[in-house]
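call fold(seq) -> C-alpha cells
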Amino acid sequence: MHRFRAAYELFLERVVMALMAGLSLEVTLGIVFRVAGSSLVWYDELASVLLAWLTFYGSALASVKRSHIGCPEVVEQCSRGTQRALGILVQLLVIGFFALLGWMGVAIMPALVGESLVSLSWIPMNFVQSVIPVSSALIVLAEAMHLVDLVRGDGAAGAAAAGGATH
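ret:
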C-alpha cells in the first residue's frame, strides 16, 4: 500500500501544481490585458473557479500527506490505547463527512443541468461543480488508507493520528 500511496500523492501533487500554474498564468494574462486597456471579461470568473479547484484538490493532497490541522497537545495527554481509539474515531468521522459531502455534491448535479459560467458559456456548471464530489472521493480514499494503517497498528500512522495530522 505504501507504493500506491506514494503514486497517489505524486498524482495529486501534479494536479495541484498544474492548477497553480494555470491560475498563475490566467491571472497574469488578466493583469497584462487590463494594463494594456483590453480587460478580459472572463478572467476573474475563471480565476475564482481555478482557486476553488486548487483549494479542494489541495485539501485532498493535504489528506494524503497528513498535513491538516490537529490538536496534538490534547491527544498526547491520553494513553496510547486512547490515542489509537481517538485516531480511529476521527478517521471515521472525517470519512463520513466527506462521503456525505461527495454524495450531496453528486445530488446537486441534476439541478445544474443546462447552467454554465456567465462569461464562458461553453463551460457547464456541472463540470465546475464536479470538484466537490471528485475531491471528496479523493479525500475519502486518502483517509481510508490512513484508517487501515491505524487499524493495523502501524506505528507511523498512530504517531500521525496522535500528532498534528488529524482533522
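The chain is about 75% helix and 0% strand.
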